[in-house]
Amino acid sequence: MVEKMYVTDEMAESLRAKPPTVRKWVRRGILNPVRIGRRILFPESELQRVISEGRANNRSRRSKSMTEKNQIEKSGVDVDRKPRSFSSRPAS
Fold it and tell me: Could you tell me the residue range of the domain that residue 26 belongs to?
């Protein structure tokens, strides 16, 4: 049986991304296309793999900010603590 193949635009639509993002994921090795001449095609098994691993959409800004937050917490800084408000009155 022949596996269904997707072009970049179809893959982007399936992953709820834009075509330039799909091309970036190919360059970074997140997606592994089949190249036939100049055509870049994605087998359905590749789409299912990426969806099941959840790798493509985990590259969001939120993931990066959570990583930065974890690094700060490891340094011993309490990032969730509210800043103290200082009043102009001296303490008694």
Answer: 5-59
Residue bearing the bigger pLDDT, 2 or 9 = 9
Q: How confident is the model at residue 2 (pLDDT cuts 50, 70, 90)?
A: confident
**Residues 68-82: tens digit of each pLDDT:** 656 656 666 555 666
Strands 34-36 and 5-6, how do they pair?
unpaired
Total structural domains within the chain: 1
Residue 44: closest CA among 79, 5, 76, 84: 5
CATH number of the domain that residue 33 is part of: 1.10.10
Q: Please list, residue by residue across 20-33, b when 16 or more beta carbons sit within 10 angstroms of its beta carbon and e when fewer do.
A: ebbbebbeeebbeb
